[in-house]
TrEMBL record:
Any single Gene Ontology cellular-component annotation: endomembrane system
Family annotation (InterPro entries): BTB/POZ_dom, NPH3/RPT2-like, NPH3_dom, SKP1/BTB/POZ_sf
Protein name: Root phototropism protein
Spans through the membrane: none
Domain NPH3: 213-511
Keyword Coiled coil: yes
PROSITE patterns: BTB, NPH3
Protein origin, superkingdom: Eukaryota
Organism of provenance: Lupinus luteus (European yellow lupine)
UniProt subcellular location: Endomembrane system
Keywords, comma-separated and alphabetical: Coiled coil, Ubl conjugation pathway
Bilayer topology term: Peripheral membrane protein
Keyword Phosphoprotein tagged: no
Length: 629
């Protein structure tokens, strides 16, 4: 028996362990005695130095291997098929494997197999060995028990039966495209994962959330392409949409960490419209172009595989990924699809989720969706929210025959709170505010306290509005739908137009009268049950209340007459601006006088209440003052 030793040389006189990675090991070849040569060929060269010289040099990546042709030709159809001498044009006679699917370490394993050494199959290298053996055409036609059949057997009977090994092989396929795709390795791994997930769902329908999500962390380590393949395979197996949605949200939290980061805020914000220059920056440092493209690809891919069912993902997640989509300027079609999805579940949203800032496009240095005028250069992207609300109304109209009409009241409170938030923006135009407030139909709001608070906030932020604009804003609310506390606040609000204040006062009077009328029969019934009938004191209290109500009504009529007279006087003096301030002072005196009268009535009523403990006379809460700011 004679031996052959394989050695790597990096520098002259330096020897490194052979292919078998163990020093002083020999490959036994019958009938030949082989010793180590003292020569080497170039840097990073592998050579086999027997008494019979090598006759083939193969270069893989940056490493060159000096080997014997016969062991390779016997098992590799690719090498045996080519005419080496005719393909090699340079003097070094080196065959370059430029499209070899793998690194040089993988080719070392192939060499070991060709020289008869046993090799180790494991989940980390089996996909690469299968692709490399296909490239080198190591089929059964060359030799029985060749590398293709052995790799296929290990992949089918060992890897695919194990969940962990299957995920490991699928992850290793990311660097083996397109070979792994063409050999159906990716498809088989995805089908195996999907089968195991669906089988677990069937056997544990009533499992807890932590049991349903046992596989989320494992598939989250995959690249976006293979993750999409896995999710598509799991969908095809009939898994529940909410499970698919949870896995997508879990994957997004891992690969899109910016989703949960707060904005740093505004930078370079000017006070005037002419010098308004600001941009929104995320809480992370400026990213490289390659990373931005990767994030954009992930966002687009995740949006495309979200199940269509509304319960699949939460509204908060949809709004978060919508912000990310706008930050990375994904395709308009996907952005529009996200807006429609948000519109379907808008009643589940919160105000902070709807605060979508205008992001700066870092590639172009311009603000995304930049408006044409500085007046609409707002901090928040209001157009997006407007489209979302419109999609919501369209969806509600389509579902009206199948579902009860309960969402509009929720969306009205949400929209009013959103209007109150954006009203603080000094650059929000009154037209944009009005259009957004009028999106909902008139019967959508059961109470107008929210829209009143938004209007009052806008008037505070924009003190230079004209009277015409103030009247435009006041028309957005229905004074009859204001609560008693809101009426009390609005009646003393100097920012509201005069006509609106009168309407509020009248509405307040009607609400007080209604409250008294509702209180009378209820209290009378209680007293009748307690005393067996109505006492003279109770009768006197009711008469006193009626008299007070009539007095308030007469005061209200007088105030209306004064208003009409002042309005006529104002129209006559409209061409004399110097005298307009006197009209404002007269109105202030009348309004203060009216409230002084009401307050005096309450004081007198409180003194009378001390004389009689009857609970029917407790109406101090009807004039409670509150602050809407």
């Amino acid at each position: 028996m004679k031996s052959l030793q394989v050695t790597q040389v990096q520098d002259p006189g330096t020897h490194i362990d052979g292919i078998d990675k163990v020093s002083d090991k020999s490959i036994v070849i019958p009938n030949k005695l082989v010793t180590v040569a003292d020569t080497f060929r170039g840097d990073q060269s592998w050579f086999i130095a027997p008494q019979i010289p090598t006759d083939l040099s193969i270069q893989v990546k940056e490493t060159t291997y000096n080997v014997h042709k016969y062991p390779l030709i016997a098992k590799c159809g690719y090498i045996g098929r080519v005419e080496v001498q005719t393909l090699i044009s340079n003097s070094s006679n080196v065959l370059k494997l430029e499209n070899f699917p793998g690194e040089s370490e993988l080719f070392e394993t192939i060499l070991k197999f060709c020289y008869g050494l046993p090799i180790d199959f494991n989940p980390g290298n089996i996909a690469a060995l299968r692709c490399a053996s296909e490239f080198l055409e190591m089929t059964e036609e060359q030799e029985d028990g060749n590398l293709i059949s052995k790799a296929e057997a290990f992949l089918t009977f060992v890897v695919l039966s194990s969940w962990k090994d299957t995920v490991t092989v699928l992850q290793s396929c990311e660097a083996l495209s397109p070979w792994a795709e063409n050999l159906q390795i990716v498809r088989r791994c995805c089908d195996s994962i999907a089968w195991k997930v669906s089988k677990d769902d069937l056997t544990s329908k009533d499992a807890a959330d932590n049991q349903e999500s046992w596989w989320f962390d494992d598939v989250a380590i995959l690249g976006i392409d293979h993750f999409m393949r896995v999710v598509s395979a799991i969908k095809a197996k009939g898994s529940k949409p909410d499970i698919i949605g949870k896995s997508i949200m879990h994957y997004a939290n891992r690969w899109l960490p910016e989703m949960d980061m707060e904005l740093e805020g505004l930078r370079g914000y000017g006070t005037g419209k002419s010098n308004l220059q600001f941009s929104i920056f995320s809480g992370v440092k400026k990213e490289s172009t390659g990373h931005s493209k990767e994030q954009k690809t992930i966002i687009e891919s995740l949006v495309s595989i979200i199940p269509s069912q509304r319960e699949a993902v939460s509204c908060k997640f949809l709004l978060k990924i919508l912000k990310m989509a706008m930050m990375y300027s994904v395709s308009p079609a996907l952005t529009s699809d996200l807006e429609k999805r948000v519109g379907m579940v808008l009643e589940d949203a919160e105000v902070n989720d709807l605060l979508i800032p205008r992001y700066q496009n870092g590639d172009q240095g311009k603000m995304a969706n930049m408006p044409n005028s500085f007046e609409e250069f707002t901090m928040q992207d209001i157009d997006v929210v407007q489209r979302i609300v419109e999609y919501f109304l369209m969806h509600e109209q389509q579902q009206m025959q199948l579902q009860q009409n309960h969402g509009k009241f929720n969306i009205s409170r949400l929209l009013d709170n959103y209007l109150a938030e954006i009203a603080r923006d000094p650059n929000l135009s009154i037209t944009k505010f009005q259009v957004l407030a009028e999106l909902l139909p008139e019967n959508a709001r059961s109470c107008d306290d929210g829209i009143y608070r938004a209007i009052d906030t806008y008037l505070k932020t924009h003190p230079s509005l004209t009277d015409h604009d103030r009247r435009r804003l006041s028309k957005l609310m229905n004074c009859e739908k204001l609560s008693l506390d809101a009426c009390t606040h609005a009646a003393q609000n100097d920012r509201l137009p005069l006509r609106t204040v009168v309407q509020v006062l009248f509405s307040e009077h009607v609400k007080m009268r209604t409250a008294m009328q509702e209180k009378e029969p209820a209290q009378s019934g209680i007293n009748y049950e307690q005393d067996g009938g109505q006492t003279p004191a109770t009768t006197m209290d009711i008469k006193t209340l009626k008299a007070e109500l009539e007095k308030v009504k007469s005061d209200m009529l007088e105030l209306q007459n004064d208003y009409f007279e002042l309005q006529k006087e104002y129209e006559k003096l409209s061409n004399k601006p110097k005298k307009s301030s006197g009209w404002g002072k007269n109105w202030q005196k009348i309004k203060n006088s009216f409230h002084t009268k009401l307050a005096g009535d309450e004081i007198g009523y409180g003194q009378d209440r001390q004389k009689s403990p009857n609970p029917i006379r407790h109406r101090g809460n009807l004039r409670t003052r509150f602050s809407m700011s």
